[in-house]
Amino acid sequence: MKDYFYDIIDKLNKKKYEITYMNRQTVSDFKLDDLLGYYISEEVKYIYSKYKVFELNWISDNNKGFVKFIPYDVLEKKHRNIIEIMQECYDINEDSYDIKRDIENWYPIFEFPNGDSFCLDIRNGKVVFYDHEVYDLGVNLHGLVIALSINDLFEKWSKCLFVDIYDWSEGVDENGIDLNKSIFAQCIFDDYNNI
Known about the structure:
alpha+beta
């Protein structure tokens, strides 16, 4: 069975990139058929059934990657957290940026150190970008499609070693992560098929 998290460690070691932090804890055979009502591939089921914690930071001369996986048993808590943040920071009665409905339907599945997240939108199964500054700065990257599904996210993001892009709009098209975008050309995974 393909293990995206094991594979990234292996690929980083082969490329001799520095892993600056890693924390992984496994669970034993947690059964999961779908994620919040959406089909997940056998490979993604494996991740959710085997990992309680997976966090990884890596750096190279020109790039960095960051993975903070949110396990199944924490999804509801993380969902409530972003709703609470919205209620504290944003006038939901006025909803001038029209984001209330989004946040109510988004479940963070990966988090970044600055407060941003990749979220599963339970209205359509897409993975979207949650910009923690949306309440202060406006829509900007809020709702940017990162992947058409959680399966698509794992498949594409793993090919680029879970790279962390400052401006995700430079790395996606209408279908999410586009590995042919110029921002990826300057990154380390131009030969990802050969790793």
